[in-house]
């Protein structure tokens, strides 16, 4: 019987309860968002003692479905103030599901203000220990010590770095990958700060080699899995990801008619030297230096994570993603991929959202805090973030916080969250997604690159994609496997012994969006929260297809919710 | 015929237009809030080029009515995001009214990003000059140079210090007092940052010795003035203010049953050594050191501004107010009035809201950035604010900004603005005012100290006081003259030749509140914006009348707007 673990950080106790029947067909984002909406006062300060941090495996976690091991973290966002869900690959999701843990709900905070590590054993046993000398350490050292001799095969380590300990707005939560590196991050929305405020440096979960969960209808489940794997493998998008990772997209976004690469704090959409940051160039360097492609979880057949080595062949970072390259590279006029890889490692270690930091540095460069292109300055300032110096806290607080510190009125955020590397002036559906998603400026909430269609079609595409993605995040699947509602309906039906149709999947996605939106409204998000930063409407990008601004009507954007 | 000056900072031009007839009976807050609501896009970033800063004398400005020379500044608040009105004494209001200037509307920003000084001559002539070496100077030096040989009798200087130049969230706008000191501040809501973003270091307005405005019905006007002056002089509150300034109230708020002094970041309500900060003690020091009481504008018969000298008899500051003493003194566990006076001078010179800074320092002390009571540390950090160092920007950004930088979840703000020195847990009507006022946590929006009455009565008292105060701020009167609606109706009727009843005055106040509230809603303020910080509900003050928290129902607070 699936269970809920309640972690009371005030009393340092963990209690186990059977998961309510009503939660049986909720998982991942659907479940974390539901628990937060149900149990967290929307106006309570995100860092208050009574705030809660929740995490859960997806509905399909603990199975052999490819990419089904993502886990969702949820809470009221310290960065944004809204209901946040941030999901992550790595080894966590499958382990939770195999152990029959439907969700973990972390409440309260220790009276002594000291950090703890929580250990959860395969039999449900638990113990807290003081973080001791782990306090202040980066995620790499923390993860290594907490894995000890164990491997990622049996042990998941959830940890925060110094940024989370200092409760910075851009702080992430790290999860280990299959090779034991803390490079998978629930990065967005500052949930690392929430974990820090709960008094948790890390959670170690041992699955004792637990087996996959059993399907109610094994034959149907197996057939669905095989067919899905075949579709994923045959998909040209998969093949591109397997060779070049997400960085492979830079060639597309940098095209003269697409203009979707963030450059110089989102003032430009292309960069002449962008190829130096692209997946093809990284792959060529990898050939020389021994780089390779990794899966972020067991059973993934896509393997899109780039392992990047430096010129001496020593590993710099893994999971070097397009968003990181776009924001910490192009957006800062930096075209040195080695420098960006070092920034990525620093962010993973300090426990920072690379998208948020890239935007915060963009704002700082606009305010002349450091020159455009100064990658050495960025690395130096990341050390200041790690040390929690005043300027480090300014940047670690995220884009809007840095903009406020520097008096910058051109702030690339929606609902307080920094813009990803997809440009709403040319890819206008992304503007709809950023404006309407309860998750703020989040490309994973509904990535639509269609162009040359009517505004109404853009709206429909964003709406459909947001509904699908809310279901995908609830299933615990990776968006790069491109599951559609029919895939998910078959999987859920065979795994849980129910009779889901594609419409049930879409209904789940809708339910998630509405529940999150309602929480946000109660937390104070009005119509204003659905606005894009005004520079996207007033400052054109000069593309080969003419000057482009984001020019969709507010009324069109408001119609997003007409599906209710 | 009264006129409107439009200052176009992009083209560096000033144009004069007749004031619309519809604005004839609007002034001060009613007019600045109306213009902002009418002309400023509520979702436009407060520091954007198209943002506007407005200022206006009160309806009764330019007359001999005592305390009638206050001026209002308005705009979308860089601190809060809502419609802000911040009014100020000093010599500005009377001069604007005497020159027939109904309002000044500042738009745009210079392309070159350089600061300017705008000079306005008695005949309406104007010229811009580059701020040059004034850039970076404090308000004292700026005001002294711009007054030149002239006196405050004919010349008003509106200026910002380094904080406004750096567009800090706590930046104020300074106006000179009758003795030529830049000690009267439109302090709240960060309007100094807005002036900085408009590219204005200062505005110099010369009235050329212009005469008072003429009343439509001189006899009735004169009779009303004489009666009002007699009432003000006979009021025991006046006598207390004349002797001890606003600091005289410390004895009351520190009483064991009142518990309304902010102490240690609002964790306590009394301080055993509070008398060392009180008006009586200051008056005794003044006897020894040559301190005295000053009016902040010509014609004021209250004279509540404390001129404070140091132990050597040299002037430290003037206008040493209760709120400053409460927040920068008691709230930081500092009981050295000489130290607080030095902080006050530093804030005046840098151009900072002392309430906001006191709260920001309280948060910083809670985060162990410096020890409680460390007044030397506060002075040192104020120098960092002046210099714009990273920690200086962290504190100069205001309470919520500092709390975010330090990961503090106990944040004494409402609508993003720091709490004044009136305690909602014991003076519960203040909680209603803070929660409902479109101005955020602002004691001047409706100060009600009644206790021992029903919640419904508290609501009625706050509602009435907020309506009256919105009218008082529109009249340009000082709240310390305690005008009631009948006084204002008589004055407006005799001055403008209309037939106002007390109900018309209340209607004006209501109109102001609703217009501000509607702007705030359009700017994104939902129900959440009307919440007090949760610690006021969860952390009791231990008073001689028992433990007290703020415990009024949300439904009661929401009923505030039932007057519509």
Task: Give your account of this protein's structure.
The structure is a homodimer of 564-residue chains. With 564 residues, the first copy, chain A, is an alpha+beta fold. Chain A has 3 domains: 3-206, Aldehyde Ferredoxin Oxidoreductase,  A, domain 1, CATH 3.60.9.10; 238-417, Aldehyde Ferredoxin Oxidoreductase Protein, subunit A, domain 2, CATH 1.10.569.10; 424-481 and 501-563, Orthogonal Bundle (Aldehyde Ferredoxin Oxidoreductase Protein, subunit A, domain 3), CATH 1.10.599. In chain A, 38% of the residues lie in helices and 15% in strands. Chain A has helices at residues 28-39, 92-98, 139-147, 162-165, 191-197, 218-234, 236-244, 250-253, 279-289, 322-329, 337-350, 354-366, 375-387, 390-396, 399-406, 428-436, 455-475, 485-496, 502-522, 535-538, 554-558; strands spanning 3-8, 13-18, 53-57, 71-76, 83-88, 101-107, 116-120, 126-130, 155-159, 173-175, 184-186, 200-206, 292-294, 305-309, 315-318, 413-414, 417-418, 541-543, 546-548. In chain A, the strands form 5 sheets. In chain A, strands 2-1-6-3-4-5 form a 6-stranded mixed β-sheet. A 6-stranded mixed β-sheet of chain A has the order 8-7-12-9-10-11, with helices on both faces. In chain A, strand 10 and strand 11 (184-186) form a beta hairpin. The first copy, chain A, is globular and about 60 Å long. The mean pLDDT of chain A is 97. At the A-B interface, helix 5, helix 14 and helix 15 of A face helix 5, helix 14 and helix 15 of B.
């Amino acid at each position: 019987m699936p269970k809920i673990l309640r972690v009371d950080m005030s009393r340092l106790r963990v209690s186990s309860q059977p998961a309510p029947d009503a939660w049986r067909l909720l998982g991942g984002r659907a479940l974390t968002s539901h628990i937060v909406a149900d149990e967290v006062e929307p106006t309570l300060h995100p860092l208050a003692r009574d705030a809660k941090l929740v995490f859960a495996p997806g509905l399909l976690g603990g199975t052999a479905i490819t990419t089904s091991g993502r886990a969702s973290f949820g809470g009221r966002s310290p960065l944004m103030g809204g209901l946040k869900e941030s999901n992550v690959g790595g080894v966590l999701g499958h382990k939770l599901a195999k152990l029959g843990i439907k969700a973990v709900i972390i409440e309260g905070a220790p009276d002594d203000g000291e950090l703890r590590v929580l250990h959860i054993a395969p039999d449900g046993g638990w113990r807290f220990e003081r973080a001791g000398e782990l306090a202040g350490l980066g995620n790499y050292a923390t993860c290594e010590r907490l894995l000890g001799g164990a491997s990622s095969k049996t042990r998941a380590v959830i940890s925060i770095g110094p940024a989370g300990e200092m409760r910075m707005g851009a702080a992430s939560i790290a999860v280990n990958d299959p090779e034991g590196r803390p490079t998978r991050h629930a990065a967005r929305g500052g949930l690392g700060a929430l974990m820090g405020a709960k008094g948790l440096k890390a959670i170690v979960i041992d699955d004792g080699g637990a087996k996959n969960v059993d399907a109610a209808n094994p034959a149907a489940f197996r057939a669905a899995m095989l067919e899905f794997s075949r579709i994923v493998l045959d998909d040209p998008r998969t093949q591109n990801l397997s060779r070049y990772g997400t960085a492979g997209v830079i060639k597309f976004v940098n095209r003269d008619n697409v203009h979707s690469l963030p450059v110089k704090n989102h003032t430009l959409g292309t960069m002449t030297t962008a190829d130096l940051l692209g997946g093809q160039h990284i792959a060529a360097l990898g050939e020389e230096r021994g780089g390779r492609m990794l899966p972020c979880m067991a059973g993934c057949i896509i393997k899109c994570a780039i392992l990047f080595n430096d010129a001496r062949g020593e590993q710099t970072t893994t999971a070097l993603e397009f968003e990181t390259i776009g924001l910490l590279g192009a957006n800062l006029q930096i075209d040195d991929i080695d420098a960006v890889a070092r920034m990525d490692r620093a962010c993973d270690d300090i426990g920072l959202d690379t998208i948020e930091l890239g935007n915060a540095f963009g704002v700082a460069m606009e305010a002349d805090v450091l020159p455009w292109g100064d990658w050495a300055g960025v690395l130096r300032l990341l050390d200041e973030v790690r040390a929690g110096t005043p300027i480090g806290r300014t940047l670690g607080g995220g884009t809007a916080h840095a903009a406020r510190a520097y008096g910058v009125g051109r702030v690339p955020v929606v609902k307080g969250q920094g813009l990803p590397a997809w440009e709403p002036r040319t890819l206008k559906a992304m503007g709809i997604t950023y404006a309407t998603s309860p998750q703020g400026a989040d490309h994973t909430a509904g990535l639509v690159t269609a162009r040359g269609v009517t505004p109404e079609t853009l709206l429909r595409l964003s709406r459909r994609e947001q509904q699908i993605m809310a279901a995908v995040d609830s299933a615990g699947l990776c968006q790069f496997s491109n599951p559609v509602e029919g895939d998910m309906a078959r999987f859920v039906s065979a795994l849980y012994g129910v009779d889901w149709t594609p419409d049930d999947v879409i209904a789940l996605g809708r339910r998630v969006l509405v529940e999150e939106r309602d929480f946000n409204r109660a937390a104070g998000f009005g119509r204003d929260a659905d606005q894009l930063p005004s520079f996207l409407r007033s400052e054109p990008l000069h593309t080969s297809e003419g000057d482009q601004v984001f020019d969709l009507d507010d009324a069109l954007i408001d119609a997003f919710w007409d599906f209710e």
